[in-house]
Automatic annotation (TrEMBL):
It comes from the Bacteria. It comes from Paenibacillus konkukensis. Its main location: membrane. It is found in: Cell membrane. The gene is yteP_71. Belongs to the binding-protein-dependent transport system permease family. This is Multiple-sugar transport system permease YteP. Pfam families: BPD_transp_1.
Amino acid sequence: MASKIQASDRISYKAMTRASLSSYMWKYKTLYFITLPAIAYFIIFKYIPLFGSVIAFQNYNIFQGISGSKWVGLAHFKRMFEHYDFLNILNNTLLIGLYDLVFAFPAPIILALLLNELRIVFYKRILQTIVYMPHFLSWVIVSGIAIGILSPSTGIVNQFISWLGHEPVYFLGEESYIRLVLIGSGIWRDSGYGTIIYLAALAGINPDLYEAAEVDGASRWRQTLSITLPSLMPTIMIMFLLHIGKFLDFGFERVYVFLNPLNINNGEILDTYIYKAGLQSQQYSYTTAIGLFKSVVGLLLIVIGNVLSKKTTGESLY
């Protein structure tokens, strides 16, 4: 008898939960309706194409389709690792991703802290607009600006080097400088826009904490170390976890516009190689295997980073 009562209680509780969820969704139906285009976008362009990853295990023929193409198992993955230049391309991707993580990731944080110290709102807004603007330039324009600035004959950087008594440097013609150019141009373009999230997090810090610190005689530097950075840490960790998920996905367009035969040895990454092998040479299955490899590595990095973050800071994505 007691078990029947408990079962009926569970059924009634589930019915109440469904009713409350339905009423809640109906109450905010406008917001759910607004999200439908975004949901449709992710379903159509992100989730449905995932089923196409099966061609990584086939010799895909565009005329025969997925169902008619021959299965080859892991042959394309084996070919990927046996390619004469693959290890060099993977090494370039890992190094550029590491440099981006070390130098580009902290840049928006530092810039947000500096902007937050401005007390005159008018100047603060002007400066924010100036540092945001490069983000809306395409990489083609950014590369044109960089090429002009770094030109060995007319570039302002080489003019300064010549003024110091040294020979001009052809930055885009020497493979040792291409990674520096890629990371530097990325910092200039995206750091300002990346400060938006950190400035929003800074605005949410309780000002009473700073007032109490001032009463105790803490300097601005001590307040930053003891209040600002610990308060920003949850946001920093979430952004860090999202960043490492794209560790091997540096971006095709931001690299391809800077490549030339003189720097390609240190500048070629997986994204540009996929473009050349996949679109130009029509090796769809082979490049899908490379893309799947990138996705698996990114997933593993997110899982490992999430576990470590949860154990060390208590913050995690899930």
